[in-house]
Amino acid sequence: TCADIRVTDAGGKSIPYWIEQSPGCNNAATVIWAKVSSISTTGTYIYVYYGNPTVHSESNGTNTFLFFDDFSANTIGTIWQICTGAGGAGTCSSSSSNWTITGGVLDHTVKEAAVARATIPQVDDYVINTRSKITDGTGAYGASSICVIKDTTNNIDYNYRKETGAKRAEIRNVVLGGSTVNTGTFSYTLDQFYKVQAYKSGSNLKLDIDGSNIINVTQSAATGFVNIELYNYEEAGEWDYVFLRKSASALPTTSAPTNEEKSPAPAAYWKFDEGYGTATSDAAGHGNSGSISGPT
């Protein structure tokens, strides 16, 4: 289950991490995201520990990203508002029978002009990752879209879609009401999940799907984005997760570890993060809790 995974920086300090639900744990495609304070131009080291069967998982997307929702709880009405009309220009409410969360998936069940809208920390540049699919293909138009919003006249829409029956990918860049539509070749399969990555760094906009770059353009774009919207236009669809992270002109990459060290698990691990009192618990799970003498 990967519950025993722990990630630390080079100094041994635990850092937040999250394990993607798909493809999941214990296979060659397992993906672990970790939040590091900074990465120098020459790189940095992080360490992954595992092998203690008594500990509980600390995988936590909320602690790892600027914005995160894996739809493991019903967040419609708390994180997400449902807004009717084209582009969500109509009434917003905290519930809708056409949008449900079941089994860790946000499901837009009918074809309609409506969006799910969430507030995010204000960003100029970003990387947004989601996993989505289109579940109804009967219309001539439709999309699986993630859109970042500044206001009604400044937004960037990343999607794969059907336009008068023809399938493709798009980045629709709206600046002061003027729209530039950038297209790329992509033909989706109905009812199949795709991993989508939307990127902005300065004037560089990119759309990747399942690890392949589909669109890469350089053009003027807005800044100061405060909302994320999900929508399908004239189709129905699902989203498995959505998260937002910082971007850079060159995104960090990882390399395979040069060695793996095997050693006995620690007899005890004290974080000293209780915040009060003199008792400190054993995070290694062996029950070797202790007390602090003369805490400061």
Write the layout of secondary structure elements.
Layout: E1 6-9, E2 17-19, E3 32-34, E4 46-49, H1 61-64, E5 67-69, E6 80-84, E7 92-93, E8 99-102, E9 105-108, E10 114-123, E11 126-134, E12 142-151, E13 154-163, E14 166-175, E15 178-184, E16 194-201, E17 204-209, E18 212-218, E19 225-231, E20 237-245, E21 279-280, E22 290-291
Antiparallel strand pairs: 1-4, 2-3, 5-20, 6-7, 6-10, 8-9, 9-20, 10-19, 11-16, 11-20, 12-13, 12-19, 13-14, 14-15, 16-17, 17-18, 21-22
In short:
With 296 residues, this protein is mostly beta strands. The chain contains 1 helix and 22 strands. The protein is elongated, with a radius of gyration of 22 Å.
Radius of gyration: 22 Å
* Unreliable residue runs: none
* Largest β sheet strand count, sense and barrel closure: 8 strands, antiparallel
Could you state the order of secondary-structure elements as H and E? EEEEHEEEEEEEEEEEEEEEEEE
Q: Quick one: overall form?
A: elongated
Mean pLDDT: 90
Distance between the termini: 38 Å
Q: Beta-strand level of the residues, as a percent range?
A: 35-45%
Q: Into which percent range does the helicity of residues fall?
A: under 10%
Quickly count the helices: 1
Number of DSSP-assigned strands? 22
Q: By helix and strand content, what is the structural category?
A: mainly beta
